[in-house]
Give the backbone structure.
Amino acid sequence: MTSRVMRDFDLLLPESVAEVLDLLATHKNKAAILAGGTDLLVALKFNYSVDNVISLALVPGLNGLSFDPVQGLTIGAKVTIADILKSKVVKEHYPALWQAAKVFATPQLRNTATVLGNILRASPAGDCSLALYACGGSLTLKSKRGSRQVNLDDFWISYGLTARRDDELAMALQVPAPVRGQKSAFRRMTRTKEDLSKINAAVSLQMEGDVCMSARVAMGCVGPTLLRLPKIEKMMKGSAVTDGLLQKISDQVAAEISPIDDKRSSAEYRNKVAGVLVKRVIALALNGKGNDQ
Ligand SMILES: Cc1cc2nc3c(=O)[nH]c(=O)nc-3n(C[C@H](O)[C@H](O)[C@H](O)COP(=O)(O)OP(=O)(O)OC[C@H]3O[C@@H](n4cnc5c(N)ncnc54)[C@H](O)[C@@H]3O)c2cc1C
């Protein structure tokens, strides 16, 4: 058994967004934002080190979770996984996100961990991040220099690396309003129920009857960062989703991913199950079948 000692750091407790931005401008890459802390505090016991930890605990105005039929869903920086699970609009309009929240870790973790923390951690296993990647969205990043929007498609650069600049606070994520016929779903496989995913998949499909007008298909734990599968998306676009198409998709998935061996699974296993998982997540989005996680 190993024991790890938390590194020394100064805990800073700003009481407004303006104060957070001042602190980020001063300390830049020598500071980290603390939201729920479920990733950051673990990292500080391992190979990550910063002199200053800027807590969001006392900062007001970041808890908003709201839905507008035109603007879509807005998720503030302090919205937790438990908030997502409690939300009827998320369950109705963004089932992939709700399903990811439902299987996320344990109740204690869900009460603490934030959705934006999941995105900012840039893990290739992030469950809510993956669901949101399928649904699409853009982050509002704010610094003393101003605000900018970054689409999730451009946000994750590599393992643990994002497009966020050192002096920026992620304020909120905006997820587009669902269009008519939109369906989404998320599924994951784990070693034990509470563990991180060893492989996960999410889809968002725009359907007209049996025909898929457009698709976003995303997978986790199969590359250095979350991946979209453009060839699968192309196969689906404009096609009727038949058993035959699902089988072709399933056979093609392994060619689009590059998993590695790690402590949760092997590359060989991930390659073998990836196609089946994608087939099942599409079935779940279309008819609710296979929602047995
Ligand atoms: C026991 C355990 C089980 C877990 N199970 C799961 C699981 O099932 N699924 C899963 O996906 N993850 C899981 N995780 C990982 C973790 O809980 C999630 O990634 C969580 O969503 C992180 O959110 P947080 O608020 O705790 O982030 P924090 O730890 O506070 O922050 C994470 C990173 O994001 C940065 N950050 C956070 N908020 C902002 C912001 N607003 N602006 C700029 N930077 C910011 C921080 O500086 C840090 O680098 C688990 C972790 C543990 C310890």
About this structure: The radius of gyration is 19 Å. The chain has a mean pLDDT of 95. The chain has three domains: 10-55, 65-175, 182-287.
